[in-house]
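Late entry, evening session. Most of the bench is empty. Finally got around to the prediction I had been postponing all week. Sequence below, unchanged from the version circulated by S.P.
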Amino acid sequence: MVYEPIPWLEQKKILLHFLDRTLKAMAGLLEGFVFSEIFVYKPGILQGLDARMKLLGVLTLIVCTSLIHSIPWLYGLYGLTLILASLSKIKIPFFLKRIWLVLLFFVGIIALPATLNLFTPGEPVFTLYSLDKAHQIGPYYIPQNISLTRQGISAALLLVGRVATSLSFVLLLVLTTSWASLLKALRSLGVPQIYVQTLGMTLRYLMLLSQTVQEMCLAKKSRTLRAGKTVAEQRWVAGQVGALFKWSMQLSVQVHHAMVARGYRGEVRILSSFQIRKRDYLWTAFCAGLSGIVIYLGR
């Protein structure tokens, strides 16, 4: 007997319950963190560098990205991030997704309006809409023809390029360096202890709290026979948020006391020791030389 789906159900989209959506989001967060750690142990070009020199080189390239004003040179640096990702055994689709899913949502809200002559006056390139006449609303002037301007497009491309390139360099650093080594490298370069300690504890608590939320939602779902009323579900969510906040405050005190009792003084300690080799000096020289050339030519 062959199963034939009901026609009106075949094209119907399934709306996930809020518990299912929460479980899916928490599982995705944990999966993304664990999956990112896989790249640290791959035999790539960046994985073999000393964490301190790698951090110094990436910071140099990020400063270079913020100083150049040439769009071709800027996107050339972005192309360099893709080459480094490929040489570091990072899958390009995975790398692009981690950057552009965030970039299109946040930067797009800022960059797209900047292309219009409403915000960036300049030479019109393409007219989107024409009004009967120009309008003056208080201090704001609305021209008769709402158009894309050449200056606005250049400003938007510059903004998107800088953010995309900077985020790509940071993502390369995070994907190819273990979290403990990165924190120790920050301390080695003179970052205050309080900031490094806060970063370390933030990641640990983010993973712990996400796992706790996942367990709370799973417990609720396993004990639910039928969907409740919206008001009752909202009360449950509000109650769990308050309970989670109270539990996290108590746990933070307990964990801090336990760490101090075991000799923790805020310094990051790892089993492996840093060792600078020839390739680390070559990486630093490459980053410094490339940054100098790009800043000079991309002014």
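Two things to note before I forget:
Residues 16-45+192-223+232-259 form one domain.
The longest helix spans residues 230-261.
Will write this up properly tomorrow.
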